[in-house]
Every structure is written in C-alpha cells, then in structure tokens.
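Entry 12.
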Amino acid sequence: MMARPKKGSQGTKIDIHTTMEEPDIDISPDENSDDVDAIAAGYVKDYVSGLSIKATPEEVEATQVFAKRLVEDFGYPKSRLITRPQYRVRRRPSDEKKSYPVDIAVFSDDTKHDDKCLMIVECKAENVKSGRKQLELYLSLSDAPIGVWFNGKSHLYLHKQYVGQGRLSFTELPTLPRCGQRIEDIGRYLRKDLQATNHLKSVLKDIRHHLAGNLKGITKDERLAQQIINILFCKIYDETTKGPEELMSFRAGVGEDSKVVRDRIIELFSRVKNRFSDVFDPTEAIELDDENIAYVVGELQTYCITDAERDVVADAFEVFMGPALRGEEGQFFTPRNVVRMIIDIVDPKPEELIIDPACGSGGFLVGALDYVWRKIEVDGAARGLSKDRIREEQRHVGSRFFRGMDKDAFLAKVAKAYMAILGDGRGGVFCDNSLLPTDRWEPMAQSAIQLGKFDIVMTNPPFGTKIPIKGADTLGQYDLGHQYKKDKASGRYTKTTKLHEKQPPQILFIERCLQLLKPGGRMGIVIPESILGMPTYTHIVQYLRERVRIVGVVSMPEELFQPHTHAKTAVMFVKKIPPSDGDQIFMSVVEWCGHDSRGNPTIRTKDDGTEELLDDVPAAAKAFRTMIKDFC
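Predicted 3D structure (tokens):
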C-alpha cells in the first residue's frame, strides 16, 4: 500500500484527564510526497499531461479546474485532451505555422488531428468581454465549433456556425455537450442521463460571480441566496418526481428562448409550493430575470444534485451567503465527510428517534435519513417486500423519527423544505432556540421534542465567545451555566449556586444534548477542541466523565472549517450510561480532511498516474468500528 504524505505539523493529541486505557490510533499518513513538495515549491502536476508546470493563478484556479471538469463532468477522456505542450492555432488561415497557444484543446477522437478539434478553452483573459473577443478570433482560425472562456470565476460557452459567403456567427450555449453528444441535443436530458459531480461548489461559484456581475435589482447576498435556494428546490423536486425515461423539466436547450426556460421553472416552483404549502409561502416568487434563470438552469441541468457528494444546500449557503454573514452567528456548515463519519459511527437504526438541535440547513438530518433508508431497502429486499412497500416504510420513518431545530428562521425553513422534498420529514423541523427553557418553545416544538426521549443526537452547534448566552432563566437550567469551585485538597470541582453572567453556546449545547438523550442513547457532537484540553474547562470534562461514558474523540485538522474560521475542533462520541473503570476510549488524530486552508481539494497524483483525495476522515470511522464494539 502506497504511503501518503504527511503534513508539516503532526497535530496535538487531546488530554482528557483520564487514567483509563486509551489506545491511540493514528490514521494520519507517514511519508513525504514529491507532489506536495512540488506544489509547495510553486509547481503543480498538470491534470492531463502529468507534466510539472508553474502553479500560476491561471493554472491552479482555471486551467486545471476546467480540465478536471471536462473529464469528470462531461466525460471526455484525457486521451482526447491536449494541455501541455500546448496545442496551437494559426495566426491567419493562410499561415502554415501555428502561433497562438490554446490552454486546453478537446478532440472528437484520439488521433487529435486538426480537423477533429471539437473545442478550445482559453483561461487567460480576465473578463468576459476580452475573453469573447479572443475566443471568436481563435475559433475563426481553427476547425473547432465550440469555444470556452473560463477564468476560475466566470465562463462563456460559444458555438461557431457558418452562415454563408465565408461569414461566421457565434451564439452562446447554455452548457457544453458531453462526450459523444450532439450540440443540438443539449437540454434534452432524461432523468437517467443526469450525473453526480464532485465539482458542484465550483459550479455554484461560477453562478455566483455571473449573477454578481449581471443581475439587476437584487444586490444583497441573503436575498440572492433565497432565490438560488428556490431554484435548487425546483431542481431537487424535478429529480425526485421524474422516472428514468422521463424528460427533465429543469432544462435549457440550444437556441431556446430564455422566457420559455423561465416559464418552465416558474411552473416547477408552483408545484413545489402547492405540494409543500406548509413550508413555502404562496407569495414567494423566483425574481431573477429570464436570461439569468436560463443561465442558472444551463449550469445545473446536466447534474444530479440529489446524488452530489456534498450537501448542495449547504454549499449554496457557503457560496452565496459568505462567511461574513454566517460567521457572526457562529454557524459553519459541517463538511459532508465529517457528517458521514459521525453517522457511520453512531449507526442510526430505523425507528430510532434522532435529533439535531442546531440543524442549520439539515445536513445531519438528510444524511441520517439517507443512511436509514438504505438499511430499510436492504432489509426490505431480504424480506421480499415490493418497492412500494419499502417506500411506504421509508416515508413512515422519515415523517416520525427525525427532529431538527434551529433559531435561524431561513435555515430552519430550508431544512424543513429539504426534508419535505427528500423524505417527507418536514413536520419534525422547527424554528426555535433549543437552548431556551423548553416551556418557552412554540407549542408544536414542545409536543414533538421532549427531553430524555431521543436515541441519537448528532450536531455541530454554533460556537464562539462573540455570541454568548445570557439571562438567568436560560443559564439557570444548566449545571454548566453555574460557576464551579475547585477543592485544593482533592482537585475536584464542585458546582456553586452562582451563575455565570454569560456562557458561550458550545458549552450549554453539550449539556442540552445530554438532556435530550434517553438512558443508553448515543451522541456525536462537533466541539472546539479546547474544551477537552484546556485547564479552564477541566470542570466540563469532570462533569462529563461523572455522568456518561466518553466513547471516542476524533481530533480534526485546523483546515476543517477554513477558510471561514481557524477554530480547532474535535468530534466527541458519548453514550448516556454510567462510566466504569474498564472503559476504553477511542482516540485518533485526523491530519487530512479533504481540503486545504483555502477550501481547495487536497489531491495527490500517485506514481501510477491515478489521483486520490487526501482525506483521512472516513478512515476514522472504520478504525472506530474496528475497536469499539459496544457503542451501538
């Protein structure tokens, strides 16, 4: 097995003040990588040719990104692409020598002859105006019918056509044809034709930059995010209601009038609102103009976003809301790989009552719902149940056993809508502050969410000293809302009758989550790592160890929530049973989380030319299950 590169820093293992046996499983890589060193020295390995090239912004943010998209999203084999050495076109049609270098050239077959050139991609021009001018020139001098301009933020797709007497016309395409697809077939997608993508966040960034430069009348990010979320739910609804052989309504064809595209989307949104009238207000509308709706549809129409690797709704919020808006509330969306790790370890079963008391846009709820539904499918198939009967059981579980709460009205609404469209679980999501006394919750929330009733809690609560919780009626509910005093002789901390003036929410959320669990229940929670290691919080560790069994702690790298925050976090797993001296605690240090400090994927090219994502998070779940047999 090939060794993986090690980071410059080894990270810090957590001291949780225990004398029990604590086997340490280090799942981090253990050797240096030439690829990582090359990138650090200012070079990057070209995705297509494998050659080492200078890591200029143009290469890293545009050329390499689009080359991957051509292969992974549009299906063009690397054998039909030329990047380095660069393909060139003539300066004039009569020239024999080729002079203009092209960043990426795509061919219709592996011969890569000039007359087989299908597409040229340019990443040099900074803006769309100069990009279009350069594309039209290059297209006029080459055999390629398609030109692409992409600068890492925005793009332009052009189709070249001959209109007689040597004249050319250039029209914009809503998207690119997939490998083997005709240009005229763009937009004629059946449900079975849609494909998942790992580049959805990059696509959403393209949409964000395009709308920022072209949209009129909608300038605030929050309002723009609401519009994009509405369009995304049209896409989700279309995907979840169409059969494999049915034509998608969420589409934009070549040469199709943008008003026709807009009318289809408005009709889709009307269906969404009618079906989920308890989620969407009847007055809500999609306010983008015809051209921009057609642009967004063109960008998203080839993808199956319900099968995307990342939570598309959370990604949309990160892109459109921005860290400034969400960061002030201490809300940072949990990366999907961490969500999956927690779900894999907690292992929810059908008809177990599950809650996320700080659910945000519903990432944990949707992930857990999918996990449980897969179990129902496997069990139903083994029992010989029909697909309709299996689906009935899935709906039953989705509607009765999932609960979520968030104080942000818009986030709660999105979670509610997401659960409604994907799993009929909208009735279990509420807009309320889960840290308040329960008698101050809305009546429906009080009825559906009761302390001491839940089998599972999975959450990433907001954290930060800038968003403290105040008020005696709120703090007084919690042991950890009180001040603690240390006995010098024993070293033990005792709760006093004096309340803190304020407490950061992450501390109170730990206790609230334990209150929600029934005896024997289990929890996975993301917390600042300082809670488990700093002397200031020793009384919290003591509080936990005297009441529950700490089953595991997974230390996460600092990059996990970057570039939004540098907070160092850990995931703690707890079972609500009395601790005993023979307990084992799983501990691991994750060094690679799948992205770097700028949010870019940490890709390593191996000696055989294949690529791997440097992501140790899934290995933590596997190691946990190998060692801890009595958690679930």
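Annotation: The mean pLDDT is 87. The chain is about 35% helix and 20% strand.
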